[in-house]
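hey m, so remember when u said the tokens were messed up on ur end? i reran from scratch. heres the input so u can diff it against urs
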Amino acid sequence: MNNFPIQSIRFDKDGLVPAVVQHHQSKDVLMLGFMNREALLKTVGEGNVCFWSRSRQKLWLKGETSGNFLRVRNIRVNCENNSLLIFADPVGPTCHTGHESCYYRQVEAGEWVEVMPVILPPDEIYTKTS
């Protein structure tokens, strides 16, 4: 993705742009994250999705601790240049809960019900350190 037109992206007042990640083949929405300029440049340059962690205030390469990377296939921008849609191939489950998508629940009879299976239990995704 050489010559990515980052100058056209309209980052918000905090220097962030929301990025929806969608499965390249199934088109399922996998997750939503936020990118600053550095995270977007790293994503474009290295081909793995990188976010800005608002809670930790640092770059977060998706998969850095789990090995479950999101390999970029394509990046789109909306009509106002203020949000991104990233098509990716997931390597393993995207959600820290072990589901393929972070959007694995839907409302049924007024309750949130899981509608997607756990691909890999969280205790098998993350190694525990003492």
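this time it looks ok to me. Strands lie at 17-23, 29-35, 50-53, 58-61, 70-77, 84-90, 105-108, 111-114. if urs says something different then somethings off w ur setup not the seq
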